[in-house]
Amino acid sequence: MALARRLWPLICVEHYLPLCIHTGMNRHVLYLMFGWAMIRSLAAAEAADKKDAQAAPAAAPGIEKEATMLTVDMKAIACKSFMGFGVEWDPGFWQEWNIKAGVTEADWKTVKDRIEWMKIPLVRMMAQVKWCYREGGKYDWESTDMKSLYRHLDVCQERKVTVILSDWGCEPNWLKAPGIADVGDPKYAAAIGTYMDHLLNKKGYTCIRYFVMVNEPNYEVKDWNRWKKGVENVSAEFARRGIDKKVVFVGSDESNDESWHRTAVDQLQNKLGAYDVHRYAPADEVRSGRLEEFWRTQWTYALEKDRKADGKPMIVGEAGILSDGFSAGNNPLHLNYEYGLYMADYAAQAANAGSWAVSAWMLDDSSHSKFNWGMWKDKTGKFELKPWFYTWSLLTRYVPAGSTIYRTKSGQDLRLLAARSAGASGDRWTFLIVNRADRAAKLKIVAPGAKSAKFKQYVYSKQKAAADANGFPAPVEENQANPAAGLNVECPPQSACLVTSIEY
Questions:
Q1: Into how many domains does the chain fold?
Q2: Could you give phi then psi for residue 419, rounded to 5 degrees?
Q3: Do strands 68-71 and 441-446 pair parallel, antiparallel, or not at all (unpaired)?
Q4: 157 and 278 both lie in a single domain
Q5: Which of 234, 115, 119, 79 has its CA nearest to residue 170?
Q6: Among 24, 159, 222, 279, which has the minimal tally of Cβ within 10 Å of its Cβ?
Q7: Within this chain, do residues 346 and 489 fall inside the same structural domain, yes or no?
Q8: Is the pLDDT of residue 12 over 50?
Q9: What are phi and psi of 106, to 5 degrees?
């Protein structure tokens, strides 16, 4: 339209000039007339263009015009058989503080229903020697603590959830057991061997696949040599009882002191069948993308120093975000929208770095007294779901155990997690996109060799987090697509989007 307005005077000159000359009109007068007409016409065209520009709809602010193509390198495998995104689930639901608060079997069913929907592949679970060990070397298998432990393990056994059982030690006053001096005491190893034999062979909990000796030993024990002696004692006890054939020993389980991890690799690689580290990452470390490098550094050290490490799981034993006011029982961010975004970002970076599993701290607030790290509140809070349940539950549900994770590079403001898993009708794909930018991201994700399938998209943003009547995430759209040709996804600003062809 604008071009036609500008060309019209020229068309007039070209068409009418010969006619006017033929009739004898003065040529100079004619040029003046058409010159003036052209000036007026161009001025009118410019004014009309401005009017059209005001009337036309402007491009939506903050949205990329062209899609960014992200191609999955099928040779860049971060983990061949991912164990899953899991949770810490300490067995506190049937403990005294919750019983006093009035928890019921109906409440317990709510918890089990949520675990069922989440399809949690693994949990890390607390155990303590003092729960069963009594004076004179006797054992109480029916204490309140042990009964609560059984009920939690029952849920895992029924749902085939892999359990990393972590004995928290015996040295701080709140963990002391009668007659046991410290973690280097042979009585401590004997007590662990006895209760593990009870759980595995008497109770039949085949879900217990991994064992950790002392939670964060750099804090709980502090002395490397004493903790190392304890590991050697427990390892020998397990071998004597045949428990080592059923359970993998995991360590060092350190937090915030990676020298313990490196020393464990150097000195205990013949005892440890898996390595784990805790990381409560500062927000800026996650936002900048530096967390991925942190995890890659830890796992690379093990791979370089332990010739058998490529067959040993590398586990993020506890995952969370560090913030002002942080403590073992208090997460100041637990009700914030941003926490869900940061945890999704954490997950993508940890998986891309080669982690075999990532366990978030914590499933629910009922796990401990006066505690708020969970994905939902306790009885006093009516078990209300928190924002970060949305993103983490999608990860536990749609990145199943056995998935292949492909290492991806996606930019400063963008993270991509690409997971392929086997299904009854062929390969299934799940893509997590975390958009940290203040503008929407249009993406075209290409996975060579993938097949056409129906993909569901979930969106977690401040404006949108669709959920069903139970509060469980609901898809915002469902379309047939072929990632081999390109899967088109648009993610709002500061959001996490999960797209999956897994049918459930």
A1: 3
A2: -130, 130
A3: parallel
A4: yes
A5: 234
A6: 24
A7: no
A8: no
A9: -65, -40
Q: Which amino acid is at 58?
A: A
Is residue 323, in this structure, part of any structural domain at all?
A: yes
Structure tokens at 47: 């004014």
pLDDT at 154: 99
In this structure, is the dihedral angle defined by the CA atoms of residues 503, 162, 128 and 195, taken in order, positive or negative?
Answer: positive
Q: What is the mean pLDDT of residues 371-388?
A: 99
Q: Assess whether 395 and 418 both reside in one domain.
A: no
What pLDDT does residue 57 have?
33
Whether residues 175 and 99 share a domain: the answer is yes
Which range marks the domain in which residue 28 is found? 2-55
Total-model pTM: 0.88
List phi, psi (to 5°) of 386: -100, 160
Is 205 in the same domain as 167?
yes
pLDDT score for 199: 99
Average pLDDT for the chain: 91
Domain boundary residue among 358, 380, 401? 401
Given a contact cutoff of 8 angstroms between Cβ atoms, the answer to whether 445 and 72 are in contact is yes
Alpha-carbon distance of 85 to 356, in angstroms, equals 9
358 assigned to some structural domain: yes
- Arithmetic mean of pLDDT, 225-252: 99
d(CA 344, CA 286): 10
Q: What CATH number is attached to the domain comprising 412?
A: 2.60.40.1180
Q: Name the helix (H) or strand (E) containing 392.
A: helix 387-398
